[in-house]
Amino acid sequence: MNKKILILLVSLVMFGSSCSDFLSVNEKNPNNASAVPPKLLLPAVLNNMASMMNTPGNFDFIYLWHGLWSISSGYSQPAALVQYNLLNSSYQGPFNSSYVYGQNLTEIEKASTDPKDVYYLASAMILKAYLFQNLVDLWGDVPYSEAFKSNEGILKPKYDKQKAIYEDVVLKLDAAIKLIQNAPATANAVPSSSDIMFGGNMTKWAKFANTIKLRMLVHQSGMTGRDTYIKAAIATTASVGYLGAGESALVNPGYVESTGKMNPFYNRYYSAAGTQNSDGVTYHNAGRDAVDFMNSSADPRIGRFFNPYAGTSYAGNFLGQAAPPLTAANTSKLGYLKGSKGHMIGTFDKSSPILTDFESLFVQAEATERGFLTGTSAKTLYNSAIAQSFVYMGLTSAEAAVYTASDKSNVNYDLNSNKINLILQQKWISLNGVAPVEIWTDFRRSGIPSFIHWSEDAAKQNPTPPVRLLVPQNEILYNNENVVALGTINAFTSKIFWQNR
Fold first, then answer.
1. Could you tell me what percent of the chain has a pLDDT over 90?
2. What is the CATH number of the domain that holds 172?
3. What is the dihedral of CA 177, 181, 187, 193, to 10 degrees?
4. Average pLDDT rounded to a whole number, residues 369-391
């Protein structure tokens, strides 16, 4: 793994520099990535992490498996997807990329030992924590303690236990928060040209770290005997707070309508000329579960997530639908409206989400409902989460207030007796096209939503989707001894440690 990282490290910096002039690293030797200063390396890493998390092809399987999207009936249904046929080569791109970006973050850490550079050090630690949380949520055991140590002669790092990684990442987030809180007055501010996510606002960085931490702890809430650990971990940084309304972690390096320099989600569906890409919006259509849920709750966001196929009518298909599916002409496409940031596909210059304010508020609402947080009521946090989702999708908080006050029990907090179910259903629909990994994690740990229709393909390998991704093929080739030490891994039964059901 590490030999490939050293090669890809250069590619990262060179690719990141293409997105905007201020990401240029041409003043440094491109063959010596460790010589790139943090002020140039940080925006490149942020840009590439945002691209990885928001490129549809990396995680569209989650939207398809969980009722949010479907494949247009105008195309042959992809056998691997509808049959749940995961291979070791499936979706290994984000794994490989995460270690490239982790290596770059390690270089930032090494270059930030001067107390004046403490903000760069803290930012790198937080972003690395974010990477490893996602790696564990997708693959379980991964190289961690011996990763990024090729300079120490470790070219084949061992795999660490996923629970141990989670617990250490929580401690790393605590340490990063303390670095920010105790930074000397002489600390160098991170300029907005380097911090293309928070513009150098370290208070938001601390809240971002604390939100990642809370999300990781809530992931473990279904585990027997874990409450004491969760409450104690939350208490250590409770005073820092979490990302609130208007404080989303959004990345924008200066997207322009040019090839390779546009929002990565938009780039899947539109060309730099503004025309639709072939097999773009005509390929991914609405999922019937999502359409039915939004119709049942009279959710005005439906016209932002999806396009009406006629007038104000919306419809979707199930994955691998056995009965004759709706024709392409009678199925809703993913929401697009040229020039509107408030539709799912958005615009070429729409910022890329790393962690939105509404996701943070949903996590806080669940944590409060479970008794892990006190102060603001779960209902208030839940309503605020929906309001911010409305705003993100181009609607208003006033429209959200009407929605949450409706007489629908799958919307109105007071009318639903199962508050966790309510919160996670609304989180599921709100994160459509925004945060696929969290959607998959929420279902695996909770079984919510319970109404999802699984693939109807007669040849599917299991009644329900896989619970994890398989060890990447590249790891089998280059780190085989440590992969073998993991033992047998089954995509349907080898659960991530927090899946206690």
1. 90
2. 1.25.40.390
3. 50
4. 98
